[in-house]
Amino acid sequence: MTLNQIEYFITIVENNTYLEASEILNISQSSLSKQIILLEKELDIKLFDRSKRSAALTDAGKIFYQDALQMQALHSEIIIHLKPYTQSHHSHIHLGTLPFLTQYKITPIIKKFTEIYPDIHVTIEEVEDEHLMYGLRHNDYDLAITRKGLLIENLYKSYHLVEDKLVVVLPESHPFSKYQAISIEELKNEKFIFMNKHISIYHLCVDICRKGGFEPNIIRTARVESILSAVASGEGISILCSNNFNVFSHSNIAVIPLGNPVTTSVVIAHIAKEKISGSTKLFINYLKNNYEYPQLAK
Question: How far is CA 240 from the centre of its chain?
Fold first, then answer.
């Protein structure tokens, strides 16, 4: 059993098909299949149910998947532990992120990681959507914490961290402010104040309005704090992510859920075909295993 075989197996499981896994690993599908067959022969078990079209795990495969994740994580930790005894023992992770670490309570997890692994230097650059994706594409960042909607499928490998939902933000005096929930169709005659056009949430809000059968009347775009102030003064209404209210607050507004919830996922991602370092793998695994966030904010 080799570490490459473990990585191949995990990649197949996490991408559901041999084809996608082979593209990410940059090896042929036949070579990948041969390595899995060799692994199965050594273990004397069948890892995948080949009667299914997707890479469905057998019961034994499901058990081995959990063990494989631990082996991969242990390998990364061993590399890190031995770094002080190599000639060049400092590792560096350049992390790009949208400016939302505080609202999703990610900063303390990163701080804890750097305390546990002091030889891994994590530098963080908070930028807006377009700058972040440009930097990730051009290897300015090893990893990006972003919204999944910004990622081009198959170009990036992403790991889920948390989901957020969109909510309607109204002046307290608005007739809808006492509603338990609001359908997007009910908002067709409203004046909207959205986030700036270069922010993915702007496009998500426009899209759900169009799906509701109308073109939103956008009278202004602004940052969250300005939007809340404008809504409170009765200038218009907005649609924002629920977890903005972990950071920003304002009196004289009402926050109402959408009747048909719309969610957005926050993920940590890297270019799928790029070989990532042991330090980077360790960082990803640490975030996945230690990041806990309450269910969607009410």
Answer: 18
Q: Is residue 217 within a helix (H) or strand (E), and if so which, with residue range? A: strand 217-222
Distance (Å, whole) CA 7 – CA 282:
14
Using CA atoms, how far apart are residues 223 and 227, in angstroms rounded to an integer?
Answer: 6
pLDDT digits (tens, 9 = 90+) for 268-281: 999 988 788 888 98
pLDDT tens per residue, range 3-33: 889 989 998 888 888 888 887 777 888 888 9
Q: Domain 163-263, what fold?
A: D-Maltodextrin-Binding Protein; domain 2 (3.40.190)
Alpha helices per DSSP H over 44-83: 59-82
Burial label for 176, CB within 10 Å (0-12, 13-18, 19+), is: middle
The architecture that CATH gives domain 90-161+266-290 is: 3-Layer(aba) Sandwich (3.40)
pTM here?
0.68
Q: How far is CA 170 from CA 181, 215, 255, 282, in A?
A: 12, 19, 6, 43
- pLDDT of amino acid 256: 95
Are domains 90-161+266-290 and 163-263 of this chain identical in fold? yes
Cα distance between residue 6 and residue 64, in whole Å: 10
Tokens representing 79 are: 């590399």
Q: Which CATH class is domain 3-81?
A: mainly alpha
How many residues are listed for the chain in this entry?
298
Q: List pLDDT tens digits, range 88-126.
A: 445 889 999 999 998 899 999 999 999 998 888 999 999
Domain assignments of the chain as residue spans, ordered by start = 3-81, 90-161+266-290, 163-263
How far is residue 251 CA from its own chain's centroid? 31
- pLDDT above 70 (res 84): no
* Structure tokens given for 255: 């926050």
